[in-house]
């Protein structure tokens, strides 16, 4: 009876090393699962509403209030947006190494709110906001600086939230429990759905407020919503399962590299069971399961080969001898890098929604009925509606249907899912290019070159937004799940941040392409592909360029997918 009671007691707690807010082992019945995820999803919905409420129409704010041209405004938006997806590397490092995901989110949210408040003040308080007349605005250097300081404070604040929230949500499900593991796969779909519900309100209601009521209110409401997001997050504290930080992942990676090069002349034994690993059931890395040996990148196996020189004064130095799990951590990161790189071009396509799609829509008839006018930036709500439509359809219809044919528990492997999204993104760029050809032909035929709004409905842009939304459901959600699953347990925040940097580099690549295209196409006094008067440009050529790059990227992705080897956790079935 005593043995039976101990077994029942153990069954009440998670087996993945998570603890509750007080540091005690997490009780399955009292913590985690969907009961804690509702607070995480509510927080994410509000935080994303605040973020998109500020960023969706930012290109128009920089043009109207800071008096920037199309190229300058578009580049500033993509540079700032890119930075928002690089700073997560800072937050992820702190989360995995020292603070844990919960306390990292709690700390960085303060910086976020201060930045939102300063941005609101820079758009509403006399002296901080630019002086304007009917024709133009005249910002001072100080006013422009105040705006950009606020924006980059927000970029830093979001760096502690973005890489942690999705991983923190996934931590609420115990991977060693088959029932909870299935729920975790659904969590990523609902997580991305909550993001887009917030984005829906932002791209419709908040953009309308910015264009029709004022920028002060337009930025003030997101600041208040961000405060609500904080309340949502802390309300669920007693229900959360918290993964302990495992120490610096960078140090562990460097240790493997150093130990491997120190033993570059050492022969790796044919029997891999002879490689060094701790005898305990758990890994010596806090918060991490043991990983099984894989055959790729065999050079790094040298770090786990035991030699007589490994002991210094009776102690084993991790700079000379590493465990198999530690070596496999490094291998996992290396395997992820090609998949990560293939997401950059996709993110470049995605970034067009906040720049080129908006500039294209600025030239079209924005009326919905005789009196109501929809801002061009609000068309992104169709991307959001597309995600809101496709996320549950994928989870409830496509997955069960695909499962009948593939036999895979998720319908598609994560790599297959992301590949489908890449194909859809190519179609979205072709669709945008065709619309621009039709628009320019309409301008030429009717001599509308100097007309601010041509009599062609902005709703012709809906298909390109809808296609990108569909592509997101396949690629971005697949990417979230893939980088969480294939990351070493103690590096999940860092790998989530790594996946987010594809968005950053996608924005930077967009900036680079726009800069190069503008420089080349404006030689000899020509207007170029992307002039301030879009009716005299050739934005369609830019879309064709992106479609070609996306196609080449997909071909490369097919090779990468065939090469990839999935992570194997010791004592657990391999999942892909």
Walkthrough of the structure:
The chain is mainly alpha-helical. The chain is built from 17 helices and eight strands. The strands form four sheets. A two-stranded antiparallel sheet has the order 1-2. β6 (367-368) and β7 (372-373) form a beta hairpin. The longest helix is centred in the N-terminal third of the chain and has 37 residues, at 88-124. The radius of gyration is 26 Å and the shape is globular. The chain starts with a helix and ends in a 13-residue tail after the last helix. Keywords: Membrane, Transmembrane, Transmembrane helix, Transport. It is found in: Membrane. One of its GO terms (cellular component) is membrane.
How would you summarize the topology of this molecule?
Layout: H1 2-11, H2 33-55, H3 58-64, H4 70-84, H5 88-124, E1 131-132, E2 137-138, H6 141-159, H7 162-170, H8 178-212, H9 215-235, H10 249-262, E3 311-312, E4 315-316, H11 324-351, H12 356-361, E5 364-365, E6 367-368, E7 372-373, H13 381-406, H14 414-446, E8 454-457, H15 462-486, H16 492-521, H17 539-563
Parallel strand pairs: 5-8
Antiparallel strand pairs: 1-2, 3-4, 6-7
Residue-averaged pLDDT: 85
Number of helices: 17
Specify the overall morphology.
Answer: globular
Cα radius of gyration in angstroms: 26 Å
Q: Biggest sheet, strands in spatial order? A: 1-2
Note the main attributes of this structure.
globular; mainly alpha; two-stranded antiparallel ribbon; 8 strands; 63% helix; 576 residues; disordered N terminus
């Amino acid at each position: 009876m005593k043995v039976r009671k101990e077994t029942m007691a153990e069954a009440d707690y998670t087996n993945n090393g998570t603890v509750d807010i007080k540091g005690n082992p997490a009780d399955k019945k009292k913590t985690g699962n969907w009961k804690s995820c509702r607070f995480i999803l509510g927080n994410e919905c509000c935080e994303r509403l605040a973020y998109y409420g500020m960023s969706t129409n930012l290109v128009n704010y920089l043009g109207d209030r800071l008096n920037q041209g199309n190229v300058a405004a578009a580049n500033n938006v993509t540079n700032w947006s890119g930075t928002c997806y690089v700073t997560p590397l800072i937050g992820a490092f702190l989360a995995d190494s020292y603070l844990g995901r919960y306390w990292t989110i709690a700390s960085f949210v303060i910086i976020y709110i201060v930045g939102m408040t300063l941005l609101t003040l820079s758009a509403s308080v006399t002296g901080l906001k630019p002086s304007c007349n009917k024709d133009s605005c005249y910002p001072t250097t100080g006013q422009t600086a105040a705006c950009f300081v606020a924006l980059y404070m927000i970029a830093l604040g979001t760096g502690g939230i973005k890489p942690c929230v999705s991983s923190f949500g996934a931590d609420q499900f115990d991977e060693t429990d088959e029932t909870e593991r299935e729920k975790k796969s659904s969590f990523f779909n609902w997580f991305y759905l909550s993001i887009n519900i917030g984005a829906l309100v932002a791209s419709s209601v908040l953009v309308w407020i910015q264009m029709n009521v004022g920028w002060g209110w337009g930025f003030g409401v997101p600041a208040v919503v961000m405060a609500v997001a904080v309340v949502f997050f802390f309300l669920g504290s007693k229900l959360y399962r918290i993964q302990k930080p495992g120490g610096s992942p960078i140090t562990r990676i460097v240790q493997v590299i150093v130990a491997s090069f120190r033993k570059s002349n050492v022969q790796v034994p044919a029997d891999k069971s002879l490689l060094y690993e701790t005898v305990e059931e758990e890994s010596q890395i806090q918060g991490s399961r043991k990983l099984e040996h894989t055959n790729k990148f065999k050079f790094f196996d040298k770090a786990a080969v035991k030699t007589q020189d490994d002991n210094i004064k009776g102690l084993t130095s991790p700079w000379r001898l590493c465990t198999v799990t530690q070596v496999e951590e490094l291998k996992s990161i290396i395997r992820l890098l090609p998949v990560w790189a293939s997401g950059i071009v996709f993110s470049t396509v995605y970034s067009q929604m906040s720049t080129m799609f908006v500039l294209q829509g600025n030239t079209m008839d924005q009326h919905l009925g005789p009196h109501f006018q929809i801002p061009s930036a609000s068309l992104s709500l169709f991307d959001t509606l597309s995600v809101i439509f496709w996320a549950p359809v994928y989870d409830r219809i496509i997955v069960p249907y695909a499962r009948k044919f593939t036999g895979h528990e998720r319908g598609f492997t994560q790599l297959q899912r992301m590949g489908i999204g890449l194909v859809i993104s190519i179609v979205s760029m072709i669709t945008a290019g065709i619309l621009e050809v039709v628009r320019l032909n309409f301008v030429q035929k009717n001599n509308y070159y100097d007309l601010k709004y041509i009599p062609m409905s902005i709703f012709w842009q809906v298909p390109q937004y809808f296609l990108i939304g569909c592509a997101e459901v396949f690629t971005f959600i697949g990417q979230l799940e893939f980088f969480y699953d294939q990351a070493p347990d103690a590096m999940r925040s860092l790998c989530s941040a790594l996946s987010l940097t594809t968005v950053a580099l996608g924005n930077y690549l967009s900036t680079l392409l726009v800069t190069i295209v503008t420089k080349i196409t404006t030689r000899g006094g020509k207007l170029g592909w992307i002039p301030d008067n879009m009716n005299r440009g050739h934005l369609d050529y830019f879309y064709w360029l992106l479609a070609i790059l996306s196609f080449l990227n997909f071909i490369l992705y097919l090779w990468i997918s065939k090469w990839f080897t999935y992570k194997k956790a010791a004592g657990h079935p391999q999942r892909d």
